[in-house]
Write a structure and sequence with these properties.
Elements (H helix, E strand, L loop, with lengths): L13 E8 L3 H14 L5 E5 L10 E5 L4 E5 L2 E10 L4
Parallel strand pairs: 1-5
Antiparallel strand pairs: 2-3, 4-5
């Protein structure tokens, strides 16, 4: 049976992948939780979700770096945002 609790990154660090598309109301609203964890001193672009979807113009942030690293509860966190330019 596989060990689902095994840390595949190693060294006690954790990778977090945030996958969304530019204009997503869900991605826009979810981005604030990561924004608060990473800290407001990093590189961001403020955006609103697409006006053609329900919950239009939801404010959010686009993460402009390819990776953000921070420590949370003594563990190194690697936050990797993956933003699709167009809806798939």
């Amino acid at each position: 049976m596989p060990d689902f609790h095994k840390n595949l990154v190693g060294g006690g660090s954790i990778n977090v992948y945030f996958i969304t598309w530019n204009g997503s109301p869900n991605g826009a609203s979810s981005s604030w939780a990561y924004y608060s964890l990473i800290g407001s001193t990093k590189n961001y672009t403020y955006v609103n979700s697409s006006s053609s979807y329900i919950y239009n113009n939801t404010p959010g942030v686009i993460f402009t770096n390819s990776e953000y690293n921070f420590t949370l509860n003594g563990r190194m966190i690697h936050f990797i945002p993956i933003i699709c330019i167009k809806k798939i």
